[in-house]
Amino acid sequence: MSLSDSFSFSARRYDFLTRLNPGYRRELRAAARQLAEALDEQPPERPLIWDLGCGTGLSTRALLKTMPQARVVGVDASAGMLDHARAKTWPEGTQFLQERVEQLEDNPAPELAEAPDGIFAAYLLRNVPSQHRTEVLASLQRQLKPDAPLVLHDYSISESRLAQVKWTTVCFAIVIPLSALVGAKTGLFTYLWRSVMDNDSTQTVLARLQQAGLHNVKSSTARGWHRRILHTYTAIKAGIRP
């Protein structure tokens, strides 16, 4: 079973499991606020935001709570996750599209015809093969409007032994047993543990963003038990708007 198929199979349990993660939605909203603050430099009236790796729409909801006037295009590779996202109630201007982030630049879908005012990607880059991550970021940089922000939100623990121990304990004592209890694919959550253990360091992510041609690159860590485990990265596409 492919990764996107595993996400599809577990989609109906996903919102429930994330609700049990203390601080998960709070930190999504905090990351969305960082995107909104970056947009405040040159605020469009109704900004177009691409929400990449949107899943069941939890990140989409966080963006719209932070920027109610935004138009959001949620993109995900998992048909099952998108089915659950589309089944929810959304304001006018919210759309969802099935596509892999690696293929976005070549996709002629009308939802992608307009360059975005900002891109938000939560828990996405870690699922892109390591050798393609800088290339994917460079592609996103090309698709952004000039002076537009990119915000990444993801786990990274390679720089902290304590964070590695904490992450492993949470996964094997809580997350994986709970996923089995509710009938989700435990293999997906074992993959979650491993993908975070193997993920880029924060310094590597910052370097990738710079190599992709983005500027004003910075990172911050989350609060609570996520501290030094969950990070938000912001970057700007340099340029002059016409």
Automatic annotation (TrEMBL):
Source organism (scientific name): Yaniella flava
Keywords, in A-Z order: Methyltransferase, Transferase
Location of the Methyltransferase domain: 49-147
Highest taxon of the lineage: Bacteria
Presence of keyword Phosphoprotein: no
SUPFAM superfamilies listed in its UniProt record: S-adenosyl-L-methionine-dependent methyltransferases
Higher taxonomy: Bacteria, Bacillati, Actinomycetota, Actinomycetes, Micrococcales
Protein name as it appears in the record: Class I SAM-dependent methyltransferase
GO biological process: methylation
GO molecular function: methyltransferase activity
